[in-house]
């Protein structure tokens, strides 16, 4: 089995959220490693993912995680009671796409 393709999502509106949700249906092929959205706060990203008015409740649980000083993260686990060992997505808020440090991820 080959390694999954690692991608970043630029914009976390309706299409960005459904794209991320889709990667959870087949994680062996595609893995999202970062989300860039210059117009949203970290807490809103997690809430919009958990409670999407267009796509319903997320099958997993997303939590805003600001414990790492240099980065903001969204942590996704199986449920609200899961141990904090789930998938972690780096959250960025660059307003210009060319300035996103893609090679670092």
Comma- or semicolon-separated keywords:
two-stranded antiparallel ribbon; 7 strands; alpha/beta; 2 helices; 5-stranded mixed β-sheet; 105 residues
Give the biggest beta sheet: 5 strands, mixed
Strand content: 25-35%
| DSSP helical segment count | 2
Strand order in space, largest sheet: 1-2-7-6-5
How would you characterize the overall build of this protein?
This protein has 105 residues and is α/β, with parallel strands linked by helices. The chain contains 2 helices and 7 strands; from the N terminus they run βαβαβββββ. The strands form 2 sheets. Strands 1-2-7-6-5 form a 5-stranded mixed sheet, with helices on one face. A two-stranded antiparallel sheet has the order 3-4. Strand 5 and strand 6 form a beta hairpin. The longest helix has 10 residues, at 14-23. The radius of gyration is 13 Å and the shape is globular. The relative contact order is 0.19. The model is unreliable at 81-85 (pLDDT under 50).
Outline the secondary-structure elements.
Layout: E1 5-10, H1 14-23, E2 30-36, H2 42-50, E3 51-52, E4 56-57, E5 61-65, E6 72-77, E7 87-92
Parallel strand pairs: 1-2, 2-7
Antiparallel strand pairs: 3-4, 5-6, 6-7
């Amino acid at each position: 089995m080959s390694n999954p393709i690692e991608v970043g999502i630029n914009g976390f509106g309706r299409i960005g959220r459904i794209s991320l949700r889709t990667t959870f249906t087949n994680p062996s092929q595609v893995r999202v490693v970062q989300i860039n959205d210059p117009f949203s706060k970290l807490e809103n990203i997690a809430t919009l993912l958990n409670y999407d008015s267009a796509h319903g409740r997320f099958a997993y649980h997303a939590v805003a995680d600001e414990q790492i000083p240099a980065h903001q993260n969204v942590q996704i686990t199986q449920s609200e009671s899961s141990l904090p060992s789930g998938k972690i997505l780096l959250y960025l808020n660059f307003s210009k796409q060319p300035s996103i440090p893609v090679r670092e991820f």
